[in-house]
Amino acid sequence: MLELQGIHKKYQMGDTLISALKGVSLTLEDGDFVAIMGPSGSGKSTLMHVMGLLDVPDEGSYRLNGREVAHLTEDELAVFRREVISFIFQQFNLLPRMSALENVSLPLLYSEQKMDLERAKVLLERVGLGTRLEHRPNEMSGGQQQRVAIARALINRPLMIFADEPTGNLDSTSEKEIMTALSELNASGITIVIVTHEEDIGRQAKRLIRMRDGVIQSDERLQPLKVSVLAAPDGTPLSEASAWVTGLRNIGQHFYQGIKTLAANKVRTGLSMLGILIGVAAVVAMLALGRGAQKAIEDQLSSLGSNLLILRPGALRTSGGAKGEAGAGTRLTIEDASSLQDQIPSVKATAPTVNGRAQVTFLNKNWNTSVNGVVPDWARIHDMAPPVGRFFTLEENQKRARVAVIGATLVRELFGESRSPIGEYLKINRVSFQVIGILPEKGASAFGDRDDTVVVPLNTAMHRLLGKDYVDTIEVEVSDPSQTESVQDLTLDAMYSRHKVPLSQRQDAFQIRNMADIQAALANSTKVMTLLLSAIAAISLLVGGIGIMNIMLVSVTERTREIGLRKAVGARRSDILSQFLVESVVVSLVGGSLGVVLAWLITVVLSTIVGWATSITLSSVLLAFFFSGSIGVIFGIYPARKASLLAPIDALRYE
Ligand code: ADP
Ligand code: MG
Asked: Would you say 392 and 403 are in contact if contact means Cβ atoms under 8 Å apart?
């Protein structure tokens, strides 16, 4: 039962205000078959849209089954649209990418009923399209499309059908079929309201209303009205719980439809994924690199306990080490090292070292590498005992023996796979050395190849190779880690007195660091680097998100009519919202997964070809997924909300 009282509807067209309805009052009984006729522009469609809840009047009262429509909430309106009212449009309004079967079952998506494809099939058979189930709209004639639309109108067992010039685009045979179908539906108890231009169609109805210039001109009963046989629900909305159940069930459908839509626009979907893909790949790869660098540092330093102090000459010139030599810095000597060991009880060992670079030759092969002159204790302190061969002895150091322990890189470059280097003679800066051992393999780090080195006795290095009479660093091993700080002070005091450093210059005479400090400093700097790189990567994620929003906005605009139709068949705001959200989440999650794969490839390339240490952690992958998912939601919300707020008729009219 429909009761309209003084309905007005105006449209703003530029500067002018067009009155489409100028006070229409009308009561429609349940079970009636009403035809509305009138010249073009007389307000027939506007009246139908108002009655069918697709549009709202500016003035007047409209009561549907006893309820004032103006007081209904958006969700209550949706319930009426899907359970009470069905629309048949002149333009059919089928969704082009869906088959006949999917088009017919579309309204079920928004109702509480289960996705019942059997019923959709039965209905399509009833309108004579049993053999066209899988056809898309563009593979069917106009008459067939309109019959699909009728089947769609029937799927939710409506009480009323509004048909706005349903045969306007059809030939006369199709017209007859459609009219027969509508008459049969009316006979089964469904209220039919039809707008038509054809006088003989109007005459088939039970009641004929003629309109002109937005008012009802005449209203005549052609056939008596039989009492309605269908019970009229009052449009009570779904209870909160069942709405949730429907919502959850529909998420699956939304995913299915979303993926289908995305697959239909492959290039566009791919491009919008690209932003997220690059962003996620950048974040994961950066974190992996940072983590790898940190691990490399830890590995490198872990063998050196926190009980190691490293003493270097400072920047300041003093008279101590090199008397009278203007411009020379403080210089450390082997005697400094032994006196520290003798003077300070908590010192377990000292290891003076010199470093330099040298050309190493074996037969016709050349290799430039770093040379370290060390004492035998160095191997123990640095956990560098050779797995193959041996380290040199104290005696060899004293005798300045020409023996060398070489790193794995040198073995590879000079000797290759086939030849054992032990016992062979090679030349370091043209001085002949015998190889007595191979250092344990340490691998590459962010600071370079740790196996690209040769270790020789300190005295040999100083006097036969590098020509130095001083040492570059003295490593001090403290016997008890808790004594590290006090040993640090004692070491400095001893050095000040040995080198006669005046009080005023003590500040800069020596540098002493303990490993804990160095570890902390290095860890901190890699952390800062990682953070910086990740920030840049995060910005690219943001840009990717904006890309998705952009594409989704285009998609909303492009599918405005589709949104209008979905609303006309009973979709609630939340349905439209979740449909578009699901799409953007799918785009960003798929983009995110591909990004993780890309990041993995990047790290593989970096670690095998460039030799950087990398490490992808599970947490960074989860983080990436979390981020890309959230980006899908955050940047999808605006377009999805925009879509959900569209008024059904505005969306349907959109060109
Ligand atoms: P009918 O269906 O009887 O041909 P309509 O209800 O579609 O007539 O239109 C009635 C009047 O309202 C017409 O003058 C038409 O131009 C105007 N009108 C309809 N819809 C709109 C709209 N969306 N914007 C502006 N004017 C409109
Ligand atoms: Mg019209």
From this structure: yes
Residue whose CA lies nearest to ligand 1 atom number 13: 41
Contact call for residues 611 and 444 (beta carbons, < 8 A): yes
Predicted confidence at residue 32, as pLDDT, reads 92
Question: Among positive and negative, which fits the CA dihedral 377, 382, 383, 388?
Answer: negative
Residue 514 CA to ligand 2 centre (angstroms): 88
Q: From ligand 2's centre to the CA of 583, what distance in Å?
A: 34
Query: How are beta strands 510-514 and 308-313 bridged, if at all?
Result: antiparallel
Q: Which residues line ion ligand 2, judged by CB < 5 Å?
A: 45
First to last CA, the chain: 33
Q: Which domains does the chain have, with CATH numbers?
A: 2-84+158-245 (3.40.50.300), 258-299+521-652 (no CATH), 315-508 (no CATH)
For residue 70, how far is the Cα from the chain centroid?
Answer: 42
Give the 3-state secondary structure of 286-301: HHHHHHHHHHHHHHHH
Residue nearest to atom 5 of ligand 1 (CA): 43
| 390-397 contacts at long range (C-beta below 8 A, 24 or more positions apart) | 390/436, 390/437, 391/436, 391/437, 392/436, 392/456, 392/457, 396/457, 397/457, 397/458, 397/459, 397/460
Ligand 1 centroid to residue 18 C-alpha, Å: 8
CA-based nearest residue to 238, from 250, 227, 246: 246
Per-residue pLDDT at 445 = 62
Ligand 1 pocket test: which of 9, 18, 36, 56 has the largest number of ligand atoms within 8 Å of its C-beta? 18
Give the mean pLDDT of the chain. 86
- For ligand 1, atom 24, which residue shows the shortest CA distance? 11
SS3 72: coil
Q: What is the pLDDT of residues 323-365, one digit of tens each?
A: 434 334 678 999 999 999 999 998 999 999 999 999 999 988 9
Is there a contact between 549 and 634 (Cβ–Cβ < 8 Å)? Answer: no
Q: Whose CA is nearest to atom 25 of ligand 1?
A: 11
Does ligand 1 have an atom closer than 6 angstroms to the CB of 42? yes
Ligand 1 atom at shortest distance from the alpha carbon of 649 = 23
Does ligand 1 have an atom closer than 6 angstroms to the CB of 44? yes
Q: Order of strands across the sheet with 67-68?
A: 16-28, 2-13, 59-64, 67-68
Tokens of 335: 């005697």
Taking CA atoms only, the protein residue closest to ligand 1 atom 11 is 20
- pLDDT category at 243 given cuts 50, 70, 90 is low
Measured by CA distance, the residue closest to atom 27 of ligand 1 is 11
SS3 216: strand
652 CA → ligand 2 middle, Å? 13
User: Are 330 and 313 a contacting pair, CB within 8 Å?
Assistant: yes
Q: What is the pTM of this model?
A: 0.69
